[in-house]
Structure formats: C-alpha cells, structure tokens
Write a structure and sequence with these properties.
Elements: E1 4-8, H1 11-20, E2 23-30, E3 33-40, E4 42-47, E5 53-61, E6 73-83, E7 88-100, H2 103-112, E8 125-141
Antiparallel strand pairs: 1-8, 2-3, 2-6, 4-5, 5-8, 6-7, 7-8
C-alpha cells in the first residue's frame, strides 16, 4: 500500500457524504469544557423564499442531556467513513449554531425526516445545527497501482 494524499472535497460532496451516514459527533462546550458526543442525525436542506439554501443537521436527544442543556450556541458536527484495510477514508466537518427546534417544527420533522436513534429512551427534544461552514477531505492513493494478472493476456 502506498502513501495517501488528502483531496479537498467541495460543498456538494461534503453534503452528499454527510447524508449517507447515520452517525456522527457533535462538539459543544458545557460548564466542564469541550464535549464530543456521538449522535444519530439526518441532514435537511431547505430553500427559502429568497432562493437561499439552508442546511441543518438534525438530532434528537433526551430532556436534560448535555445537548439539551445547550442554548443557542456555536457547535461543530463531524462524520467520517473509514476503510482501514485500504487506508482510505473521508471526513466532513460542519460548523454552525445549535438551536432547539420548536414544537410545530419538531412535529413536522418527526413525520418527515426523523433521525432514527440507536439509543433507547425518551428522545423528545429536537436540536438542529444550522450549518454556516462546511469542509471535508478524502484520503486517496498518491500513486495509482495497476494490478495485472497473466490470465488477462491468455
């Protein structure tokens, strides 16, 4: 296996990758300092009346949890895909502002794009990270290695 290079991903590829994985990590700061929490999520893309696109990372949490105790606050969300065998992978980082979603919005989300949590319990609170910046990288082989087999010529 050769060395790898980091390929910078464009916005659309970052959003495509985030949308395909069910689990990521949200980073917030609480009274004890920085905290990184694994969460199930869904990506929601909306277009406003002014044709501007908004991107949200939606999460559900339990009342009183670390995530629930956050007010409107800056936060980051990261997800990645790793192929250890081939030493390849990707990572996407979304930064933005956390919001508690109101009851009508949460009811609509529950019906249309509910993130299915793996955690059992009363995950009644809906939190949305309004994405203001997104970036990502993918590890790719530095050199393409072509494998030829003698049977290919017989």
């Amino acid at each position: 296996m050769g060395d790898a290079l980091a390929e910078v991903l464009d916005r659309e590829e970052c959003l495509r990758l985030l949308a395909q994985v069910p689990v990521g990590r949200v980073a917030v700061v609480d009274s004890g300092g920085p905290v990184v929490l694994p969460v199930n999520h869904r990506l929601l893309r909306t277009v406003g009346p002014d044709a501007a696109e908004s991107v949200w990372v939606l999460m559900r949490t339990a009342p009183g949890s670390t995530l629930d105790r956050q007010g409107i606050a800056p936060a980051a969300f990261q997800a990645d895909g790793i192929d250890e065998y081939h030493r390849r992978g990707w990572s996407v980082l979304a930064r933005g502002v956390l919001h508690h979603l109101d009851t009508p919005t949460a009811a609509w989300l529950a019906e249309h794009c509910r993130p299915e949590p793996w955690l059992v319990g009363p995950l009644e609170r809906w939190i949305g990270l309004e994405v203001t910046a997104i970036s990502g990288r993918r590890l790719v082989d530095a050199e393409q290695t072509w494998v030829f087999h003698v049977r290919g010529y017989l």
